[in-house]
Structure formats: structure tokens, C-alpha cells
Amino acid sequence: MNQSQSQQARIQTVTEQLTSQGIVHFRKLFLDLSAPELYEQMTQRQEGYLAAGGPIVVTTGIYTGRSANDKYIVDEPSCHEQIAWGEVNRPFNEIQYDRLRSRMTAFLQGRDLFVQECRVGANLAYQRKIRIISVLAWHSLLARNLFIHPREFNAPIRTPDYTLIVAPTFKADPAIDGTRSEAFIILHLGRREILIGGTAYGGEIKKAVFTTMNYLLPQQGVLPMHCSANVGINNESALFFGLSGTGKTTLSTDPNRRLIGDDEHGWSNNGIFNFEGGCYAKVIRLSAQNEPEIWDCTRKFGTILENVMLDTQSRRVDLDNDEFTENSRATYSLSSLSNIQPMGQARHPDHVILLTADAFGILPPVSQLTQEQAMYHFLSGYTAKLAGTERGQIEPKATFSSCFGAPFMPLDPVVYANMLGKKLNETKARCWLVNTGWIGGPYGHGGERMPIQQTRAIIHQILANRLNEIPTRTDPIFGLQVPLNMDEVDNRLLDPRSAWDNPHSYDEHARILAKKFTENFKQFADRVPESVQACNPR
Question: Is the pTM of this model over 0.85?
């Protein structure tokens, strides 16, 4: 059988499988198209612009970020007892799901469909096969970039473990479908299916799959993690947890270390592994000096630039322009980077780094955590975001997102925290809290952002094991062990109180932040050991 005949046989197999799922009468099926083929389809369908250097630039309309309030999990017997139902994991009625799905599959009739057969999880023991069905060619390329694609050409068709149906031009009717708006992301874990409609934002595809893995892997004893990871020259590995804006991608993309992945990983009894085969990097005001590898990817063929401003005459992109959104993104394959861990796996981490961008200027730049403190700060998931302007005032806003990724965690956060504590105890990995935020005062009131060069120096000291035996002091409010001195770091920065012009003002702000920590942690108090509760600020 020649290559063309083999591909036709594969298309026929997928067509039969889709028919059995009620996806019928579509016009044409485009199966596993390569990046050049998808570029042709995108330009023919006017889905995006080809930019200088080779990336494709697309826009997503009014949805330029995740629609957290439009994400649901179908409440059905197989998952009902396991899901932590609430504001994050909203239940969806199974009858309404069937009705919405029927309307969605009817919408697909007469349309071209793009299908990518992908994998999630570099470790074969925990890998899942996923099928992404989309009506937009660029979503097919996004799936091909983000997930792991079978190495062999014309790989045999397997029955997928999970199927995603993505149709942004199909909009829900809340009065009929039971949704909150026209947009919806609905996971039916029992049927192993995900529906996405009304929104074209690519991050919905990525995070719906991540949520699914966060549901499945703890059942196999694997801790799923919203973190980046890299490996040093002696094969020692490190994890970097953090919310958006804390430096998770920037700090893990290090020319002297091999990148495993920038966002989603699993920690099994044998080590760590990447879920993905690509990156979904935030690129607003990206610096060629500070993030050279990521910046280079925004000029490469195969990269998707999402909601990035483009001069349609010169075809040059402007990464500093936030007219569309502050959340502009680049999607590219890990193979676009020069220094990666080829198989996406590594041994148990030597260091676990929790990143926070404290805009209040209270937390020290670096501190070592005990196992109990690691669980406490992992559950807290603290960072501080800059609030909007009201009557000319700009104030930081404390944000707590358990496990540094609450929107993607379908189980009780304590489940993941207990797994982390167990992993730290078994492997003796050291855990650190690194503040990449403000020093010398709050944002807008005398504080300055911690210089990225100093943060990099701190990370290098941690990974080189130079902080393990350095004398420390105990922070009187947060109980953190803070190094007294460090090489290559301005030691005046290590004591945030002394960096403030008014130390008494620091004390006042520190008490306010400590109270926020304590109030937030009350939700976990009845389900964690007393030793973890005792890590509340004094």
C-alpha cells in the first residue's frame, strides 16, 4: 500500500469512528495535516496572516483569555463522588449535555473537519491518546504544536482515550442549553469527551486536556502539576510552580539547562515527565535580551501568534502592543527550542521552587521551606496581581489559587497537596519560595520589581546547591528560613523590611498580608494535619 492509499485508509477508519459517535455528513476530513499543509489551509480560509520570519498570526475576537465561568464538568455517576464541586468545578446536567451535543454535531454537518491524533504524557505508562476535532485549521496546528504527535508517518489509527470537539463559531443558547453564555467548555469524564464552543481562545483546548489529566493521574499515584521543569548537566532536575506573571516560563528556559516543559508535568514513582510537546507562552512585551529563546520562536515558521498586533503591510509583529489583550500568546513545538530534554522525562526533582510575584513587597526574595511549609504554600498558591485603576489609584490585589492552578484541579486541592508532601518526603527534594515581585515597598508606592538578573542568580544558587548550608534567619511573621547572605546577589535585598524607607509601614503591610493568608487557609483547616495549619503567619 503506497503512502496515499495508507492515508485514505486512515481517513476511512476515522470517518467510521466519528459516524459511530454521531458526527456525520461533514463535507471533508483533513487528518493529521502537517504544519505546511495547515498553513495552506489557513491562508486559503483567511484564518490568519503570515508574518515576517514565518509565524502565522490569528485573532480570537472578544475571547482573548479563558472563560473560567463557562467551564463545566458533567455531573454523572462515574465522577460524582470524586469531583470537588463548587465555583471552580461547576456541575452540568447530563440531559442538557446530550441536547447541546446534538445541536453541536448538527452544526458540523456540511463543514470541513480537521482532526489531529495526538498524545498527552511523555511517560508511556501514563500516556493518553487524544483526538482533536476542529472546524478551524489553526486549532489543528495548535493541537499539533502543543501535544505529542506520533513519530511515525501515517501512524495506525487507535481508538482515542479522549475526544475534543472544538467549534468556536457554534454558540450556545443559554435559554436552551443551560449554559451561562454563548461560550462553553464542558468535560464529560464518563464518556471521555470534551465540547468547546463559542470561543476561539486556544488556551481552552490546552487547559481542558490538562484538567482531564489532573482528574485521571492521581488514581494512578501520579501527582499532576501546573509547573515548568528543566534538567542540568548532571541530570539533576527542578520544578517551577507559579501563576501567570511569576516567571515560570522565563526562569525555566535557561540556556545552561535542558527544558523538559514550560507548564504541565506529572510526578510518578519513577520521576517527572512532561504532558505536552510544545509551549503556550505569554509574549506581551517579550524581551529579546531577557527571553531570547522564546523571542526567537515568535519569528519562526510553525509558530502561532495569538492576538499579537501585526502590521499587515510590512508583516512585522509588535509584541509591545496590547491593543487586543495583555494575554497575547505564542504556540510552538518544543523542537523549536535549542536546548530541550529529548524524551520529556527526568529523574525525581532535586529542587521544587514555588514562584510568587508579591506586589506588596513583603515576602523575601528567597526562603527555604520545610515539608509542611511547602504543603501550606502549595495549597495557598499566592501571588499578587495589579488591580485596575479606580479614580487614579492602582493597588495590588492578593490572589490565592490552590496548587498554583485551582481552575484546572477537579479534585479536592488537599489531595494534590498530600501527594506533594509524600513526594517531598520520599525523595528528599528541597523546596523553596522565590518572590519575583516587588522589593522596597508595594507596587506604585516606592517599590520596585525584583531585577530579573538577581532572580536568575538566586535560581542558579539554588540549583547549584549553594544555599543548602548557608546560615538563615527566621522571618518573624511568616516563619520562613531566609538566607543571611548569597554570592552574586545584592544581600540588601534579602531582608525586605530593611529595604523599605519606613520599616513600621512594612510591619503594617506585612500584618495585612498575613491576615489574608490566614483567612484564605481556613478553607483547608479541617482537612490538613495540625503541622501544616501551624504554618499560618503569626
Answer: yes
